[in-house]
Amino acid sequence: MIFMTAENATGSKLKELEDEYSKTKHNKATNKHLGILRAKIAKLKKDLSAKKGHGGIGFSVKKSGDATVALVGFPNAGKSSLLGRLTQVESKVAGYAFTTVSVIPGILEHNGAMIQILDLPGLIRGAHAGKGDGAKIASVIRVSDLLLFLVDINKAEELYELINEINLLGIRPNRQTPRIRIERHQTGGIIVAANNHKIPDKDTVVGILNEFSIFNADIYFYEDATADDLIDILSGNVVYINGVVVLNKIDTMEKNKAEKISNEIKKKTGMDVVKISAAYGTNLDELGDLLFSRLRLMRIYLKPKDGIADMEKPFISKEGATVMDVAKALHSKTAKNLRYAYVDGKSVRFRNQKMGIDHVLQDKDVVTLVYREI
Ligand SMILES: Nc1nc2c(ncn2[C@@H]2O[C@H](COP(=O)(O)OP(=O)(O)OP(=O)(O)O)[C@@H](O)[C@H]2O)c(=O)[nH]1
Ligand SMILES: [Mg+2]
User: Fold this and answer.
1) Are 157 and 265 in a shared domain?
2) Residues 171 and 138 sit within 8 Å (Cβ to Cβ)
3) Are 347 and 358 in contact, with CB atoms under 8 Å apart?
4) What is each CA distance from 135 to 126, 221, 268, in whole angstroms?
5) Residues linked to residue 104 through DSSP beta bridges, in sequence order
6) 160 CB less than 6 Å from ligand 1?
7) Got the DSSP string for 102-131?
8) pTM over 0.90
9) 106 and 214: one domain?
10) Is residue 62 included in any domain, yes or no?
11) Atom of ligand 1 lying closest to residue 282 CA
12) 177: which of 65, 93, 145, 280 is 20 to 30 A away, CA to CA?
């Protein structure tokens, strides 16, 4: 006699739905059906991961520094070589695949910022379906601030497979959380408000909501959205992280050819692309600049009231930070006594302009904080 656990039953139901999904032809007539199938699949996955629980499935890694970047790539792309070049950390490099088997962190110091770089095992095709260490790798990727897609320029087309795999793991590079709001009620059915935005037809929206056991709700779309965007919001375990593309091993390719490949990727994906050689250390400064700006970091130079600014050691802050944010990060207790600041740099029109505590600073501003005398 074979006993089936609830988890097993959900798993086989999932397999059944995935099979049906892959067998169904995609066209206008099957759109709604496919949308609802995807919703069913997402709901089952959500139930499954809730049962398993998230604790303990990932590699353990402690975040440190001002921000964290995950190296994402197929085996042999050169992730460990790059980590070794960017940081002082040595991660085993070898001419065969699957050399790295756990997470190896290093710190890149660039523009005064400490950027944590995580070397990860190579991702493989089918990782989302539980092949290799997919789930563990995904758990680390999910908590990082930026994805660095590393591909061997000789196999540049693998980038698209890599992005696809990442999407299937519930990670959406270079996307924002879809602006959809769902207000649940006791009665009244489903009411859709889309204000002329392009969204799936009402039947599909209702069908998807029903799959997640929502039968009474007002749903507001604040922008164009697809059935998948709605499913992402409902399944609640999708993350939105920016990514950059790094083409490695350019030492093995003629310059014009490499340029052409890089331009094509830029055009197709809209992502920033840097060409490097991890083996020879080519263009690593350019890569550091890109990481710094895509992490939305900025340098603030602090100047004492009657002294000179420390141009060696900037205070690292996040884009959008105000004078008050900097004061708080420096010293949370004295921040309440902050009165104003003198600011020099891109965010002001005059030199040493007197600005209020809500003034938004910019990269490389020189700031003198003035506190109330107590
Ligand atoms: N020519 C050339 N070879 C490189 C470059 N970067 C890495 N390699 C070689 O590519 C192979 C794989 O490098 P690794 O750094 O181990 O690759 P990985 O992505 O960490 O591989 P896994 O840990 O197996 O996923 C090694 O033989 C490296 O010497 C480069 O810029 N140019
Ligand atoms: Mg490696």
Assistant:
1) yes
2) yes
3) no
4) 11, 31, 28
5) 119
6) no
7) S-EEEEEEETTEEEEEEE-PPP-TTGGGT-
8) no
9) no
10) no
11) 31
12) 65
Last residue of a domain, one of 261, 294, 327: 294
Residues 290 and 303 in one domain: no
Q: Cα–Cα–Cα angle for 240, 246, 247, nearest 5°? A: 140
Assess whether 138 and 254 both reside in one domain: yes
Q: In this structure, is residue 359 part of a structural domain?
A: yes
Pocket probe for ligand 1: among 76, 248, 275, 284, the residue whose CB has the most ligand atoms within 8 Å is 76
**Which atom of ligand 1 lies at the shortest distance from residue 94's CA?**
16
Ligand 2 centre distance from Cα of residue 341 (Å): 47
Q: Is residue 59 part of a domain?
A: no
- Please check whether residues 16 and 132 belong to one and the same domain: no
Q: Could you tell me if 207 and 227 lie in one domain?
A: yes
353 & 318 share domain: yes
The Cα 333–Cα 43 span in angstroms is 46
User: In this structure, which residue's CA is closest to atom 21 in ligand 1?
Assistant: 76
Give the CATH number, domain containing residue 251.
3.40.50.300
Residue at 1 is within a domain: no
User: What is the pLDDT tens value at each position of the chain, 374 positions in all?
Assistant: 445 566 677 778 888 888 888 888 888 888 888 999 999 988 888 887 766 654 445 567 788 899 999 999 999 999 999 999 999 887 778 777 767 778 889 999 999 999 999 998 888 777 776 666 777 888 889 889 999 999 999 999 999 999 999 998 899 999 989 999 999 999 999 999 999 999 999 999 999 999 999 999 999 999 999 999 999 999 888 999 999 999 999 999 999 999 999 999 999 999 999 999 999 999 999 999 999 999 999 999 999 988 898 888 999 999 999 999 999 998 878 899 999 999 999 999 999 999 999 999 999 999 999 999 87
Q: Is 314 in the pocket of ligand 1 (CB under 6 A)?
A: no
Expressed in angstroms and rounded, the spacing between residue 275 Cα and the centre of ligand 2 is: 19
Of 54, 49, 231, 67, the residue nearest 147 (C-alpha): 67
Q: Return the residue whose CA atom lies nearest to atom 27 of ligand 1.
A: 95
Return the CATH number at 339.
Answer: 3.10.20.30
CA angle 98/101/102 to nearest 5° reads 150
Q: How far is the CA of 20 from the centre of ligand 2 (A)?
A: 37
